[in-house]
From TrEMBL, chain B:
Complexes and interactors: The complex comprises the extracytoplasmic solute receptor protein and the two transmembrane proteins.
Main location: membrane
Transmembrane segment boundaries: 50-70, 82-99, 119-144, 164-186
Function: Part of the tripartite ATP-independent periplasmic (TRAP) transport system.
Keywords: Cell inner membrane, Cell membrane, Membrane, Transmembrane, Transmembrane helix, Transport
GO molecular function, one term: transmembrane transporter activity
Listed InterPro entries: DctQ, TRAP_DctQ
Protein name: TRAP transporter small permease protein
Domain Tripartite ATP-independent periplasmic transporters DctQ component: start-end pairs: 57-188
Family per record: Belongs to the TRAP transporter small permease family.
Region Disordered, residue ranges: 1-25
GO cellular component: plasma membrane
UniProtKB/TrEMBL annotation, chain C:
PANTHER family the UniProt entry points to: SIALIC ACID TRAP TRANSPORTER PERMEASE PROTEIN SIAT-RELATED (PTHR33362), SLL1103 PROTEIN (PTHR33362:SF7)
Residues passing through the membrane, by range: 7-28, 34-54, 74-93, 113-143, 155-178, 190-215, 236-259, 265-283, 295-316, 336-354, 361-381, 387-405, 417-437
Keywords annotated in UniProt: Cell inner membrane, Cell membrane, Membrane, Transmembrane, Transmembrane helix, Transport
Gene Ontology MF, one: transmembrane transporter activity
Lineage: Bacteria, Pseudomonadati, Pseudomonadota, Alphaproteobacteria, Rhodospirillales
Protein name per UniProt: TRAP transporter large permease protein
Subcellular location: Cell inner membrane
Quaternary context: The complex comprises the extracytoplasmic solute receptor protein and the two transmembrane proteins.
Protein family per UniProt: Belongs to the TRAP transporter large permease family.
Domain TRAP C4-dicarboxylate transport system permease DctM subunit, residue spans: 13-437
Length: 334, 199, 451
């Protein structure tokens, strides 16, 4: 193609810091690198399709491309949330290694090809938090009957542990939490949670985000459109996306600390660390859920196996090569 | 005098239908045998589907009671409410055509003759409504087929399987819209060209 | 100007022309969209004219995904539920009694019925954000008694249409939820920020009705037999107000007690109205059948408009309509307040033709960074913007409240009456917007107190 002018539909509004503002940046790089011959026009969620429907629309060629979180297509492609972020899964740099160095990208291309989509790893951001609660979660028994809004596989894990999981739409979340229709909600990482103002209605912020240690986003390109590009143009998209991975990781890590400090120091939020007892049970149940999915879906099994294999291989290094979490507070005697 | 004979107010049944059991209006288009058959069909489906609002109320009440009184949340029940609501409005679109309830800006049209209005209705059906509805129906079929092929299910924990069932209602709804539009189209041609024969 | 921008202008003009043919609005919107798709494809393929993103049949196919999105929109479940509630109230005899008693009480007071409509409008607004439902409900309750009391049709139509529109601004409000999502602002701040602007509009409406009734007695005539108001009348009002009050309490109460979400509360309201009808011995299978059928028809004509509007917006957007409007806003030679005023002006004018959702989708993301960069508070601006868009429900020719009203009004009330009737209320809206513009604290004070 001589000139490329594509729609790029978003799954999150680009006003969300770190989570979604990499997309316009990537589009800009593409425009610059191509000397202005390639334009990916950002379309905010809802302007063309809802964020959750981008997969469908790109796959059927109704729109040319999208910058999205992998996982909304879970109902059609059960393996997809593994590429978006996994319970007890990979951290941002591990995910980058998996996708770029350990065959993740190739695996994903293979799986998405029958759906007429070329997915390109294009951004990864920090861990999510485990959610906003109206009370601190202290023991395993409190999980039973907990009314919590929790989407995705993490929700399934909690459901299995006896929590009453709902998937109230984001539009009703704030009021539901404020008025006590639900006890808690999972949402995103600190920057995004700050923008949405959950700290105004509930004060217990739970960490770590066991259900999603990193969140990855992709440039989905309609396969026919991708095949219509020449090598230079394909190279530009791949390079811009790899730059997007670096940019988003840097941006997300750069911002979270200050926001968490602001929560605890200025806004009266208590940062609650989930007790080991609960984390252990969550991990056990996660393994069960992942085994169930692996049994039902061959692609899921393949990808999850590759991910956990890399996680195991990397484990000794991650635990010994880096200073252990919390050592500084310990040494300081805090 | 080209005004079509219309039912007088007294001939309206109390529920807004005429003596033939079909929706009555003032200054009405003539009826034809085919259009009556179509209208009866749509009325039957619409009447049956209208009970869905009672079902929806029951669903919401059950969900609220379950959560508030028994502390139980059921994702599939939350989703089922969306099913009722969506089926209700999408089937209702054709029903509202048959009842002639879609809103018109008729400030000017009120002063025009029945023939002029019938011409506009005819042209509107042919150039606006029918192409639009046919285009959507045509596009909704592959959309539905993809969902069936992938055996699409809800992406929520504990959500409903077989999403295609609900997606199929886009097709049903718009097929009914096309039918309802054809019925009105025939009633316009009956007035303008005596084809098909007005009853 | 680009070629496709000329097509956008033609699209708008064609649409404007066609709605006055009297063909249903929903299908004009949908049909014109499809027509322009065809036209654009011909222009592109035959004359090689640049049609921006509208260059393939497939571009229109997104409409199916958008219909699906509407089918998955949980918040809109409240629409049929509140309509059901209104129809059931109407059938239960509760509404008749309420209106009859209010009429008795206000027989000495000019414009009393209109004032009742405004008060009930504000109460409804606090329990729902669904304008279609409020307008329909108020029309059914209030138009017949107002006609009977020989109110001017324009005043009656105007007061019902505008009072029903308050719901989109006064929380809970779907408009503010969507704006919060777009701009990543806290919903709670926007909700609290909109409370005073909403109430101020209510007060402005009240003042207008009171003054109009004094200056032009024929608009809201005093009843012929102006008997003294007795204590029995007051008691009658109190007694008749109990059931609907219980209902509003059930709706609002279930929200505030954390029993139900606002959407679920609409279902509780529908159930409550049914219970009231049963308590009045008015409920039977026939009544239920009729209410269900009428709910179906009313809900569907409203969704028909939604559907047409989404197609129209899609085609306009694909033709570069967003950038076209955005371009108008860029490089303005105004001082900061002038920029804000100009943005509001554009939103106001766009409101003549487009609905609030499309306008917010087009303009908000574009202007928010600009406004923030000029040093304004984004919560203030968003509430101001929302107040402007609330007005779009009332501005002819495409004012959704006007269409909803037209859809259920008695035959004597024409679209002409409705168009004329809203004019003074649109002026009141502008007054409200200016007040909020001048006094930032009207928006910002309450959120600061609450959180
Ligand atoms: Na409201
Ligand atoms: Na308007």
């Amino acid at each position: 193609a001589d000139r490329v002018r594509w729609q790029m539909a978003m799954s999150f509004p680009s006003t969300l810091k770190a989570l979604a503002d990499t997309a316009p940046w990537v589009a800009e790089q593409i425009h610059t690198m191509s000397g202005g011959t390639m334009t990916l026009q950002v379309f905010e969620p809802g302007t063309l399709v809802k964020g959750t429907e981008v997969f469908d629309a790109v796959s059927q060629g109704k729109i040319d491309s999208g910058y999205v979180w992998a996982g909304y297509e879970f109902g059609k492609l059960p393996v997809s949330p593994l590429f978006g972020g996994q319970p007890f899964g990979l951290t941002p740099w591990q995910m980058s290694a998996f996708m770029l160095e350990k065959g993740g990208q190739e695996m994903m291309e293979e799986i998405y090809a029958p759906h007429n989509i070329m997915p390109i790893f294009c951004g990864v951001v920090s861990a999510e938090a485990a959610g906003w609660f109206s009370f601190p979660l202290e023991g395993l028994d409190e999980v039973d009957g907990l009314r919590i809004r929790f989407a995705g596989m993490g929700g399934q894990v909690l459901q299995k542990m006896g929590a009453e999981v709902t998937v109230l739409p984001a539009s009703e979340l704030f009021e539901a939490l404020e008025k006590g229709v639900i006890d808690a909600t999972e949402f995103s990482m600190p920057t995004v949670d700050e923008q949405l103002g959950f700290y105004k209605v509930v004060k217990y912020y739970h960490l770590p985000g066991w259900h999603q240690q990193s969140t990855s986003q992709y440039l989905y390109v309609n396969l026919d459109k991708w095949n219509g590009l020449d090598e230079t143009q394909q190279g530009i998209l791949r390079t811009a996306c790899t730059a997007g991975v670096a940019k988003s990781m840097a941006r997300a890590e750069g911002l979270q600390g200050a926001v968490l400090n602001k929560f605890t120091d200025e806004l009266g939020v208590e940062a609650v660390t989930l007790p080991d007892e609960i984390l252990r049970e969550l991990k056990i149940t996660t393994d069960e859920v992942m085994a169930e999915y692996s049994e039902k879906d061959a692609d899921f099994a393949r990808v999850w196996e590759a991910m956990t294999a890399f996680q195991d291989e990397n484990r000794q290094w991650a635990e010994k090569g880096y200073l252990p979490a919390g050592w500084m507070s310990r040494v300081d005697g805090e | 005098m080209d005004e079509t004979p219309a039912y007088s107010e007294s001939a309206f049944n109390d529920d807004g239908t005429g003596p033939d059991g079909l929706p009555a209006e003032h200054r009405m288009l003539p009826r034809t045998r085919i259009s009556n058959a179509i209208d009866r069909f749509i009325m039957r489906i619409g009447n049956a589907a209208s009970w869905i609002w009672v079902v929806l109320i029951a669903g919401i009440f059950t969900n609220v009671t379950m959560r508030y009184v028994f502390g139980r949340a059921t994702v599939w029940l939350e989703e089922l409410q969306l099913y009722f609501y969506a089926i209700g409005f999408i089937i209702g679109l054709s029903y509202a055509i048959t009842w002639n309830r879609h809103v018109r800006v008729d400030a000017l049209a009120d002063r025009w003759s029945a023939r002029t209005r019938a011409w506009i209705e005819l042209l509107g059906m042919v150039f606006l409504l029918l192409p639009f509805a046919i285009a959507i129906t045509t596009e909704a079929v592959p959309y539905l087929m993809t969902s069936i092929q992938l055996n699409e299910a809800s992406s929520s924990p504990g959500g409903l399987p077989y999403t295609w069932i609900l997606k199929s209602f886009i097709v049903w709804g718009f097929v009914l819209i096309i039918l309802a539009a054809l019925s009105r189209l025939l009633r316009c041609t009956a007035l303008l060209f005596d084809r098909p024969r007005p009853l | 100007m680009f070629e496709y921008e000329i097509i956008v202008i033609c699209l708008l003009l064609t649409f404007m022309g066609l709605i006055f043919t009297g063909f249903p609005l929903a299908w004009v919107l949908g049909g014109v969209s499809f027509m322009y798709l065809t036209v654009s494809l011909v222009l592109l393929n035959v004359f090689n004219i640049d049609t921006y993103f509208l260059d393939d049949w497939n571009d229109f196919a997104i409409i199916v995904d958008r219909i699906w999105a509407q089918m998955q929109n949980w918040v809109l479940v409240a629409l049929p539920m509140f309509i059901f509630m209104g129809l059931m109230l109407d059938r239960s005899g509760v509404a008749d009694k309420l209106m009859a008693n209010f009429t008795k009480l206000f027989r000495g007071l000019r414009g009393g019925l209109a004032l009742t409509v405004i008060v009930i409008g504000v109460l409804l607004a606090a329990s729902t954000g669904i304008v279609g439902a409020s307008v329909v409900l108020l029309s059914m309750l209030a138009l017949p008694p107002m006609m009977e009391a020989r109110y001017s049709k324009t005043l009656a139509a105007g007061v019902v249409a505008s009072s029903g529109t308050l719901g989109i601004l006064i929380p809970p409000s779907i408009m503010l939820v969507i704006m919060a999502d777009q701009l990543s602002l806290p919903v709670g701040d926007l909700f609290m920020g909109a409370v005073f602007p909403g109430l101020i509009l209510g007060v402005l409406y009240v003042s207008y009705v009171v003054i109009a009734a004094m200056v032009r007695p024929d608009m809201a005539p005093a009843p012929e037999r102006a008997e003294e108001v007795t204590w029995w009348d007051v008691l009658g009002v109190v007694w008749s107000i109990v059931p609907p009050l219980l209902l509003i309490l059930a709706v609002l109460g279930s929200i505030f007690a954390g029993i139900a979400t606002p959407t679920e509360a609409s279902g509780i309201g529908a159930l409550g109205a049914t219970v009231l009808a049963a308590a009045n011995r008015r409920l039977n299978l026939e009544v239920l059948r009729r209410v269900c059928r009428e709910t179906m028809l009313t809900t569907s004509f409203i969704f028909g408009i939604f559907l047409g509007a989404t197609a129209f917006a899609l085609v306009m957007r694909s033709l570069g309509g967003d950038e076209f409007i955005g371009g108008l806003l860029e490089g303005l030679p105004f001082p900061p307040w002038g920029v804000v005023a100009f943005i509001l002006f554009i939103a106001f004018v766009a409101g003549f033709f487009l609905d609030w959702l499309e306008i917010s989708l087009i303009i908000l993301p574009l202007v928010a960074p600009v406004v923030e960069g000029l040093g304004f508070d984004l919560v203030w601006f968003t509430v101001l913007f929302a107040t402007t868009l609330q007005t779009s429900f009332l501005t002819p020719p495409v004012g959704f409240s006007l269409f909803y009203l037209k859809g259920v009004a008695p035959p004597g009330i024409t679209i002409g009456h409705i168009y004329k009737g809203v004019v003074p209320f649109v002026l009141l809206q502008i007054t409200g917007i200016i007040l909020v513009f001048e006094f930032e604290d009207l928006v910002l004070w309450l959120p600061e107190q609450m959180y």
